[in-house]
Amino acid sequence: MTFIEYKSLSPAQRVIYKVKEFFSLLPGRVKAFFAAIGKFFRNLGNSFVEGLKGYGSRFASGDASTKISYLVMGFGNFTRGQVGKGLAFLAAEVLYILYMLNFGLVYLNKFDTLGTTQAHQEINPATGRPMMVAGDNSMLILLYGTMSILITIVFIAVYVANTKAAFEAEQNQKAGRKNLTLKEEMTDFLDGKYHITMLSLPVLLISIFTILPLAFMILIAFTNYDRSHVPPGNLFTWVGLQTFRDVFKVSEGASKGYTFLALTRWTIVWAIFATFTNYIFGMIIALMINKKSIKFKVFWRTLFVVTIAVPQFVSLLLMQQILQDDGVLNVILGYMGIPAISFFNSTALTARITVIVINMWVGIPYTILSTSGILMNIPEDLYESARIDGATPVVQFFQITLPYMLFVTTPSLIQSFVGNINNFNVIYLLTGGGPNKDANLYQAGQTDLLVTWLFKLTMDSNDYNTAAAVGILVFIVCATLSLITFNLSKSSRNEEEFS
Amino acid sequence: MIKSYKLRRTIADVVIYVLLGVLGLIWVSPLVWLVLHSFRGEGGVTVPYVFPKQPTLENYKLLFTRTDVFDYPRWFLNTFVVAVFSCIISSLSVLMVSYAFSRLRFKSRKMFINIGMILGMFPGFMTMIALYYLLKAMNLTQTLPALVICYSAGSGLGFAISKGFFDTIPRALDEAATIDGATRNQIFWKIILPMSKPIIVYTVLTAFIGPWCDFILAKIIMGDKRDNYTVAIGLQKMVDKEYKQTYFKQFLSGSVLVAIPITILFLKMQNYYVEGVTAGGVKG
C-alpha cells in the first residue's frame, strides 16, 4: 500500500490497517532476527568444521616438508623457494612460544581461579621482621589472561594459514608452476590482497583498544569484582550469574535491584520525551523556516545551528551555570521580584523537566538540520488539496506532515532513541545525576540514566561487576532496537521511493 | 476573496516571523550572554543585568598571563597537538576501512562489517576501566599519546558514512582502471580519493573536532596531572566550587576562545557533509 492509498482510508480503516500490518509483520521480523543470529552461528560453525577438515586432509595428502610445516611453521614455504614467507611464519611461531612461556602461561594458569594467594604479612626469615608479601592480582590475571586467549586465537589463525600456504606451495611445485617470490607477494598486497593492507592496521588497533577491553569488561560481569574485592589488596573470583541476579532482585532499603528498576523507568521516560519533543518541535521550526514566503532562510537556520556548533561541554556547562541556584537566571528573576527557582536541587520532577527542556535546546537544531531536506520532498499537491478542502495548518501538520515523516524517518527516530538512552553528556554536565533525595537509590541520583549510573559505579564506588552487568543489559536493549531498525530500513527502502 | 486570502497569508507570515524571532532569541541568548560577559570587568560570578558596565579585555589577558594555577595556553597547545595526531590516524583508518568494505570484495567482508556494527553498539564507558589499566600497563597514563590512542584507535569503526559515499561511486570506473592495468592501490589513491573531497574533508574535520569536545576520557586518563589537561577538562575545573569565584570570568573568555574556531570548523563540516551526501545521491 502506498502512502497516498493509505491517506485515502478513513480513520477507522487506518487504525485497523496499522494494527493488522504491525501484527502481520511482527512474527516475520522476530523470525528474521533470530534466523539471522542462527545463520551467523551456523556459518561460524560450518567454516570451523570446513577449516578443520581442510587442516586434516592437507596433512594427510601433503608431502614430508608440508607435514613438517605442521610443527615447524613456514618450513614448507622455506624449502620451496619462498624464503621470506617461510621466515615470517617461523618468526610468528617463535614469538608466540616466547610470549607464552615468559608471560602468557603465568596468567593463563591462574585464569580459572583468578589467583589464590592474597597479599599478606610474613616474617622475613633474614631479618626476623614482618613484611608485606604481594599476592596474586586478580585484575591483572583477568586482563592478561584475556589478552593471551585473544593472542592465541590470532595465532591459531596464522598457524592454519601456514599449513594452507605450505600445501599450496607444494601443489604449485607439483603442477610445475613457479611459486611467487617475496617481491611478487609484496606487490600482490597492493592489488589482489589490498584489503589485508587496508584493514590490518585498523583491525589491530581496534582489537587492542576496543575488543580486548570489551572482552575484559564482559568477563568482569561474571566475577565479584566490587568495592570489597579490589586488587591488589584483595582477590576476586568467578561467581557466575550472581551479579545479574543482584541487579534484578528488588528488596527493601537501598539495593541495586531497586536502583536498576527506578533508573530503567526514568531512562525510558527520558528517552521517549527527549526523542519526541526534539522531533516534533524541531520539525515545526524547520517547517516555519522552509515556508516559501519566509525570507532570510539561511540566517534563521544559522541562528539555530550555531548552538550545536559550539562544543557541547561549553554550551552545557554554560547552561548549568546559568541555571544554578545563584546563577544568572535566578539573579535576574530576583531582580524582577520573582522568587528564585531551584532548577536542579529541589525535587526530582523539577530537575527532570529542566533536563528535558535543556535537551530540547541542545537537540532541536539537529532535527532542523536533518529533517529540512525530507520536509522539502513532501509532495506539494497533498498540501494543495488539503488547503482547498479548508484544512488549517495545524490539521495539515498532524494529518500530512507528521504521518509522512514518521513513515520515512522511523529508522533515524529509533536511532536517536538509542542515542538518548546513552545520552551521557546532558545528564552528567547538567545535574550530575542529582537531586539525591531518594535514599533507596544505590550510588545514584534521581536524574541518573543507566549509563551515568554505570559511570558512577566504576568511578566513584568501584562496583565494577555491577557496572559491567548494567553495560551488557543496556547493550542488549540498544542492539536489539538497532537491529530491528536495520531490518526495517532494509525492508522499507523500496517503500521510501514512492514519492 | 483574493484580498482576504492574501491578508491571511501576510498575517500567517508575520506570526511566523515573530515566533522565529522569539525562538531564535531563546536559542542564541545564552551564547550572546557568554560572549558579552567574557568582556565584563566588574562583578563576580553573576550580575543582574545583560550588558557589562565595564567592558574590558582583562579576562582574555589573564587567561594567558595568570598561568600558575590554570595554564590555559598550555592546555590549548595540548589539545591542538592531540587533535592533529588523532586526526591523522583516525582519518586514515576511517578512509582505509570504508574503502576496503565498500570497493574490495573478499571473503568474510560481510562478517567484518557486522562485527564492526555490533562493536559500535556497546556503551563506550564500559571499556574505560580496562582501557585505563591497559594504558597503565604500557606506562602511558597521564600522557598525551594515551589520549591520541584513545581518540583514534577505535575510529575505524566509524566507517558507515564514508562507506556510503564510496558505495555511490560507479564501479565502472574501477573496472576501466583495472583494464588499463591499475592496481587497487593506484585506484584508491589516484581515482577514488580525488573524487571524494567532500567526504574526506568531513572525516578530517570530525576527527579534528572530537578531542576538543571530549572531557570524560581525558579526565580519567589525566587524573590530577594539570600540565597535560586538555581545554575541555581545564574549563570544567575552573567552575568547580573552590575556583569558581575567582575564575568564572576566565571560564567565559576561555570558552569563547575554544568555541570560535570549533564553531567555524563545524559549520564548514556541515556544508561538506551535505555536499558529500547529496553528491553521492546524484551519482548513485
Description:
The complex is a heterodimer of chains A (499) and B (284). Helices cover 70% and strands 2% of the residues of chain A. Chain A is mainly alpha-helical. Chain A folds into two domains: 62-122 and 130-240, no CATH class; 250-498, MetI-like (MetI-like fold). In chain A, strands 1-2 form a two-stranded antiparallel ribbon. In chain A, helix 8 (194-220) crosses helix 19 (464-491). Chain B is mainly alpha-helical and 284 residues long. Chain B folds into two domains: 2-58; 62-283, MetI-like (MetI-like fold, Orthogonal Bundle), CATH 1.10.3720. In chain B, 74% of the residues lie in helices and 0% in strands. Chain B has 13 helices and no strands. Mean pLDDT of chain B is 85; it is low at 280-284. At the A-B interface, helix 6, helix 8, helix 10, helix 11 and helix 12 of A face helix 1, helix 3, helix 4, helix 5 and helix 6 of B.
Going across the major beta sheet of chain A, what is the strand order?
1-2
User: How much strand of chain A?
Assistant: under 5%
Name given to the CATH homologous superfamily of the largest domain in chain B: MetI-like
Query: What count of helical segments of chain A does DSSP give?
Result: 19
What would the average pLDDT of chain B be, to the nearest integer? 85
Radius of gyration of chain B: 25 Å
Helix content of chain A: over 70%
